[in-house]
Amino acid sequence: MESQDLRNAGLKVTAPRLKMLELLEKAEGRHLTAEAIYRLLLDAGEEIGLATVYRALTQFEAAGLVTRHHFEGGQAVFELERGPHHDHIVCIHCGRVEEFYDEVIEKRQRSIAEKLGFNMRDHTLTLYGECNAPSCMNKRIKS
Amino acid sequence: MESQDLRNAGLKVTAPRLKMLELLEKAEGRHLTAEAIYRLLLDAGEEIGLATVYRALTQFEAAGLVTRHHFEGGQAVFELERGPHHDHIVCIHCGRVEEFYDEVIEKRQRSIAEKLGFNMRDHTLTLYGECNAPSCMNKRIKS
DNA sequence: CTTGCACTTGAGAATAGTTATCATATAAGA
DNA sequence: TCTTATATGATAACTATTCTCAAGTGCAAG
Q1: How far apart are alpha carbons B132 and A119 in whole angstroms?
Q2: How far is the CA of A85 from the C1' of D4 (A)?
Q3: B112 to each of A15, A60, B119, B124, how far by Cα in Å?
């Protein structure tokens, strides 16, 4: 239950926070911007402020409930932290995001950090490319 | 000579652009923000506008003369594009940046992209950790 | 050399994304 | 139920960057 997640994080259980978590749940791994979350909730008839969305997302991130990614371009995107770590590949044409995990790369990163005298704490790996989704390829031909 | 780089890129050879390239050259691989470049030039007695710095950096990037990184936190940093591709590891305490290149990771990325149906065009890999520089460790103990 | 003009420049306004402020509202332990 | 630390929404403020525009300048053609 989401309310338990909130309590564990030392956050009060409030309507805006629950709605946001539900939405992220329903989004099933899609990567949403703060703005998108705000609009979706408004469209669903919820009363919520953009500031609250940003605030809550920051708190969720601190609590390890969501992850923030920056990819290329302005806005940050958020996704629910379900399961283990993974990296991303983003289509430079349609923005589609796929996730992957590679043990070889993970191991290699740790040993590189160690060799350079760093105690590794985190990393971001994002690949960019052209995806082979039909809808995306069509768009490219037209333009 | 830098002026040739500019001509090759289809850019006119102007004082501000040359000064910026010289500065980046002297920075020897340090990663500078647009703001830092601007201030350094002002301090050196050059007359230049911040808008010009941003404009030129964008043009240099398009021409492949410099690379733009986002790391964590607000401002982008720039470095001269000398030699082959490399990735970065950043100290989360002092911000020190080291560079590395790992053929195993590079290969692995390409095959992952292919497997997922992407034609890979680019990637960013940044590790974050605590560095073992004496100056950095001291600061941590004090605070 | 001059000259013409497309390209540049600097200053400041404008924008995008995000965070801070503040008065009001509310969750939840006593 | 009371109390109070937290949370909320509206809006102002802020940061990084880009845009606008009038004035200036590199450079190719004469």
Answers
A1: 8
A2: 40
A3: 41, 30, 10, 14
User: What is the distance in angstroms measured between the alpha-carbon CA of B64 and the sugar C1' of D25?
Assistant: 25
Q: What is the CATH number of the domain that holds B44?
A: 1.10.10.10
Q: Give the residues across from A133 on adjacent strands.
A: none
Nearest CA in chain A to B69: A72
> In Å, how far is B12's CA from the nearest CA of chain A?
28
Q: For residue range A34-89, what is the model confidence (pLDDT) as tens digits? A: 999 999 999 999 999 999 999 999 999 999 999 999 987 789 999 999 888 999 99
Domain containing B42 equals: 1-82
Point out which residues pair with B123 in neighbouring strands.
Answer: A127
Backbone angles phi, psi at B41, to 5 degrees: -70, -40
The count of structural domains within chain B is: 2
pLDDT of residue A82: 85
pLDDT at residue A140, rounded to an integer? 65
Domain closes at, from B82, B105, B121:
B82
